Amino acid sequence: MMPSAVWDLFSITTCANGRVKVEGTWDLTHDPSITTLDGCNEIIAGICTAGSRIDELISECQKTSMSKAVMIDQVGTWAVQQVMITLVDSINRTIPEKTARFTPVIRPGFEKWPISNQSLLFSMLDASRIGVKLTTSLLMVPSKSISFIIGIKR
Predict the structure, then answer these.
(1) What residues are paired with 140 via a beta bridge?
(2) Contact between 49 and 87 (Cβ < 8 Å)
C-alpha cells in the first residue's frame, strides 16, 4: 500500500464543557482546559498512512541490522508526517471561504485529547479504503499512520 489518506468534513452541533457533538451522532471528548475547538462550527477528520511497505522493511532489517531498522522507522515517521502536511495543505485550498480559520491539528493521544477517541475517528471515516486498521489496543496498522481532526471557524 502506497502513501494515502481519507478525510471528511463534519458539522459541529455543540461544543462545550470538554464535549464536541459532531452532526448529532459522534461525541468527541477532550480535556475541558483545551479551548482549541471553541467557536468552531465544523471539523475535518482525517487518517493518513505512509503504507505497509515501511513496516515490512523495518521487520526485515530488524533481523540483520537494528540501526538500519531504526533509520527506516524514522524515515517512515517523516513520510507519514509529509502525507498529513500535504493533505492538510490540499484541504486548506479546497475550503472556498476566505473567512474560514483553521485550528491546529489535534491528534488522539496528543494535546490532552484521549487516545480513546481513536476508535471514534475510525467510525467516522472508512480507513479500510486506504488499508489502515485499528487494533483493540487503539494502535493503527500500518504503524506509520496518523489520525487527526482540525476545527474550522467560519
Answers:
(1) 134
(2) no
Spell 104-116 as b/e; 16+ CB within 10 A means b. Answer: ebbbbeeeebeee
99 touches 154 (CB < 8 A): yes
HSE at residue 72, side-chain half, CA atoms within 13 A, is 18
First-to-final CA distance of the chain: 36
Kindly indicate whether the domain formed by 4-153 is annotated with CATH number 3.40.109.40: yes
Residue ranges of domains in the chain: 4-153
Q: Provide the whole-model pTM.
A: 0.89
> What is the phi-psi region of residue 51: left when phi exceeds 0, alpha when psi lies from -120 to 50, beta otherwise?
left
- The 10s digit of each residue's pLDDT in 61-75 is 999 999 999 999 999
pLDDT in tens, 19-63: 778 886 677 766 665 678 888 889 999 999 999 999 999 999 999
Per-position b or e across 27-54, b if 16+ CB within 10 A of its CB? ebebeeeeebbeebebbbbbbbbbbbeb
- Asked if omega into 96 is within 30° of 0 (cis), the reply is no
Instruction: Kindly report the number of other CB atoms within 10 A of residue 61's CB atom.
Output: 17
Hey, which residues does 54 pair with through a beta bridge?
none
3-class DSSP state of 77: helix
